[in-house]
Design a protein that fits this description.
By secondary structure, the chain is mainly α. Helices cover 51% and strands 7% of the residues. Helix 1 runs parallel beside helix 4, helix 1 packs across helix 5 and helix 2 runs antiparallel to helix 4.
């Protein structure tokens, strides 16, 4: 189910993300490759490779932005919660199911309410303004792909800048204005790449720690995760990335689907 959260902060962050990526692409092509590699086969190679990473980054980001993170469906009819207050033994027969008073519905284990999305999200980790969406059960794979591609793009850009200044370039323009513009754009690109690279690396490490500990950020705060039985790390990664070949985990194509869109209130309560 495609969705888009109308949050001003998230929309601004999305725009900043694409401005930064497009600026990096512009500097790499205009001020690095066309200035230092115009007569070399390395020029077309780097253009294709750099823009391939940009394309994969954009696809992963759009998937993370527009994909359903695991929204718990709302009930078709108003739910009567009187059996819970009465303490009857038939209430919430499904173990660890809870009630969300804001959505006025039952929610499965590990689902939490997001005050920005205004819905309960299965296995919610956090709400990320950079994708203007929650990171949950169904889109965490795309969020991790986005982080990986941003980190790869940042490292690639810094390497290209360093190589372009270290390697001798006899065909480079000697005009002062051109050199000054190239220096300015390269400095801005390095600062941008270093900032975003360190930022996404920290988030990526945090995401993998959450996956391997089987405990989302919300559960860490609420101390709800450690009681679950231990699972192998590969099994935990498979839950997030799918059962396909690990190489396919880097492609923002096939999603991870473990639940149907059928309403969750068909069980007897």
């Amino acid at each position: 189910m495609p969705m888009f959260v109308r949050d001003p902060c998230g929309i601004v962050c999305i725009l900043l993300t694409y401005v930064a990526v497009l600026y990096a692409d512009y500097v790499v092509i205009r001020w690095i490759i066309l200035q230092t590699m115009q007569n070399s086969l390395w020029g077309p190679f780097h253009v294709v490779l750099f823009n391939t990473i940009v394309f994969l980054l954009a696809m992963a980001h759009l998937k993370a932005v527009c994909s359903d993170p695991g929204v718990v469906p709302l009930p078709q009819n108003r739910v009567d919660f009187s059996d819970i207050h009465s303490g009857s033994p038939g209430s919430l027969q499904q173990e660890d199911w809870t009630v969300c008073t804001r959505c006025e519905t039952y929610r499965p284990p590990r689902a939490h309410h997001c005050r920005i999305c205004k819905r309960c999200i299965r296995r919610m980790d956090h709400h990320c303004p950079w994708i203007n969406n929650c990171v949950g059960e169904q889109n965490q794979k795309y969020f991790i792909q986005f982080l990986v591609y941003v980190g790869a793009l940042a490292a690639y850009a810094i390497i290209l800048v360093v190589v372009s200044w270290v390697v001798d370039c006899p065909e480079c323009s000697n005009e002062i204005s051109v050199k000054q513009s190239r220096i300015l754009h390269c400095v801005i690109l390095v600062l941008e790449s270093a900032l975003f690279g360190m930022f996404v690396s920290a988030i990526l490490v945090d995401q993998f720690q959450a996956i391997f500990s089987d405990e989302t950020a919300v559960e860490q705060v609420q101390n709800q995760g450690p009681f679950r039985p231990h699972k192998p790390k590969l099994a935990l990664l498979t839950e997030v990335c799918g059962r396909g070949h690990p190489i396919l985990w880097l492609l923002p194509c096939v999603g991870v689907s473990r639940h149907s869109d059928e309403p969750l209130l068909n069980h007897d309560v």
